[in-house]
Amino acid sequence: MISSITATTGGQPVFRRDLDPNALRLTRRKTINLLRNCKNIAQVPPIHAKIIRTFHGQDAFVVFELIRICSTLDSVDCAYDVFRYVPNPNVYLYTAMIDGFVSSNRSADGVSLYRRMIRDSVSPDNYVITSVLKACDLEECREVHGQVLKLGFGSSRSVVLKLMEVYGKCGDLVDAKKVFDEMPERDEVAATVMINCYSDCGCVKEALELFNDVKVKDTVCWTAMIDGLVRNKEMNKALELFREMQMENVSVNEFTAVCVLSACSDLGALELGRWVHSFVESQRIKLSNFVGNALVNMYSRCGAIYEAKLVFKGMRDKDVVSYNTMISGLAMHGESFEAIKGFREMVNRGFSPNEVTLVALLNACSHGGLLDIGIEVFRSMERVFHVEPQIEHYGCIVDLLGRVGRLEEAYRFVENMPIEPDHIMLGALLSACKIHGNMELGEKVAKRLIESEDSDSGTYVLLSNIYASSGKWKESSEVRGSMRDSGIDKEPGCSTIELDNQIHEFLVGDTTHPEKEAIYQRLQELNRVLKFEDVMFVYQ
DNA sequence: ATAGGGTTAG
Predict the structure, then answer these.
(1) Which sections of the protein are PPR repeats (predicted)?
(2) Is the C-beta of residue A232 closer than 7 Å to nucleic acid chain B?
């Protein structure tokens, strides 16, 4: 990217003499349109060069557009290169730049730019305040809140709504509620934001109470409540609310469909998912990428990989998320080579794989036992795809080594990693130790897990099983005992299954289902089949 | 010229 400069000769800016105000306006219009049509950051530099020639990088309207385009094209550094050479940026430019930082997950840069703006005595408006609030943590939010009151933006609707939202996101329900209560007209929009605050803080009960108090609820309000329930893992309640919504004749849109599909994915509610699919088609709800991706995800996670592929194939403007969803689904179903094929197609079509793509691809390798490919992918992550390996990627490699039985190597890998292992990674290693019968290493890993205090009941159970299977009965029962003492055995395992549009829920040790005898008998049969298949697999 | 309630991948 070319750096914008103020062209000077002997200290004086040079302006093109042949541009009268009308011509300037026309050129500005044309340039902005050119910028808006850019699909790729590579198309921007020639236009930028022209902007420097024509406007000397000083026309706020054009620069504003330039900053926004660079940001939307995932090139916030280019946007900043433009911004930092503007001598006295106005509040519009600050807003665009802060927004750019926020959407690239660079909140700290957004906040410090806002501070610089205040220091440079540029008066904030309600737009820039809502922008910077998105970047704030709790302390910064309080600071901006103070300024808001001092500067008289306390009655700006968008500012107040954003303040509530950020307080909620930061877990400060008290202040969110305070702002809400102080609003002169608490309409359904404000209530929707407050419902989200409750959901963000895990207060489902309060969210539902407020929801029930809202007199006239529109699609957005219903959708927010359904989504809040989904995010808090109250799937059945979410689906119940969805049915209620339709009985109240509130129209369902693509947002609602995506939320419900996400609930179906979690519950494995294939039939309801299919129903939402046909509902989307019959209601002519826009089959956007959001909906398409949610459908692909729902079908894969409900075990219907064929239908997932069908939806995926039918999507015309697939994006990175579409590919990631499909590759993850294929990996989940053990179709490792299909997943790799999907990855190749994605790269060939010019998409840049991101960190999620690489997790999916590594998972595919792991599930297929493709050690060499997996290691190769991991090694090329940074060099070829410019993705810095995160804990999830390291975890995939540990999983991969563990699965193929190279446990010592996996342990060495963990010890040599530049980051600390988390309980998920150690848990994967632990179960690999159990599967491959490496008791010494298993014991070492389990102890490390329990010391880290991040362990769940599963760790204790596995450690106790490891002791039991090597005849160390005393140690085994001691582990069970310390599990009870630590109160960690309280979390009940839960699973659900959908049958004839009914979601059946089962808790660990649950014997309340009317058909429990038939269910447990069938379970035992399945266990025998699985054991047999496992043995066959080993001796193949 | 800008924002202002709800969505997908691990």
Answers:
(1) 90-124, 218-252, 319-353, 456-490
(2) no
